[in-house]
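ok trying this again, last paste got cut off
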Amino acid sequence: MGSSSAKMAQFSSYGDVDVLELVQMIKPSAGPGQVVVEVMAAGVNHIEAYIRQGLLRNELPTTLPQRQGSDFAGIVVEVGEGVTAFKKGTEVVGHAVMSSHANFVLVPQENLVVKPKTLSWEVAGGLYLAGITALTALLSVNATKGDTIVISAAAGGVGSMEAQLATLNGVTVIGTCGERNFDYLRQIGVQPVVYGDGMVERIQKLAPKGVTAYIDNFGDYNASLAATLGVTASKFSSSGSRKAIEIQAFRDSTPADNRLTQMLGTLVGLAAERKLDVLVSGFYPFDKIGDAFDDLEKRHARGKIVLGMRPVDNSFHGMGTVKAREVHEREA
């Protein structure tokens, strides 16, 4: 791709998806220790919507116009002096500070890991923020073999990764969700429970020996529900904790702290081995970024929503952007 056709997403005022715009960008140049990556796929995340809406101005100050995006996967197109781990043409997965929703991204070499050939672009592009949030939340409740954990919003991008990482550790997982997600959760080893009146009884029926841990991805009634189930404070991770994890990830996404990149490397390895399956429920062309966030913000998405910078044109069959859950529902 030539720099004359390169674009990046930004917003010049706070608001809904209609403030997002794609503007021309100049391909960056790599300085010492830096790498320029042509982005093939980039995940979209709720925290990016909150930043755009102006809800996190105190926690994550922004300067308008503001770029966005943290997850990405792509191909190295330039390396700076001192870069030894990557060369031009290397396929990589990485993380950036509010800049990956673009055709090119400039990052320190410490923010990258090699993408295995067996890992698809769309999965690789949506791994970072949801994955490290899931890993951190799971570590915070210290769920180990023999535990029974409840995960709220278990079919979402973060919840589905938490569930799979927990089952890999021998943890029994009960996931709260809408009925349309029952089959999906069962496929990834989760016992589903529908939202609504009687949740406590439905969960207790599935966990006759009790629930020992709880991860809340939604808020609202989940803290009181966990307390009713007898989950101790040290084994409960709140939606507020999830927000704090994501904010800290934005603050720590620097070369000085490669802990996040190490976690990303673990996730990439698990995904490449199909021990961690990431369902991409919406794969949007980059120029439909507003539609991607509109889909995300409705909070009905199963798995991850990802932007494709060079997607295959599927307009010939008249379907436009295909969402896995909508295909499933049409066929049901």
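PB: full thing came through this time. Residues 313-320, 327-332 have pLDDT under 50 and may be disordered.
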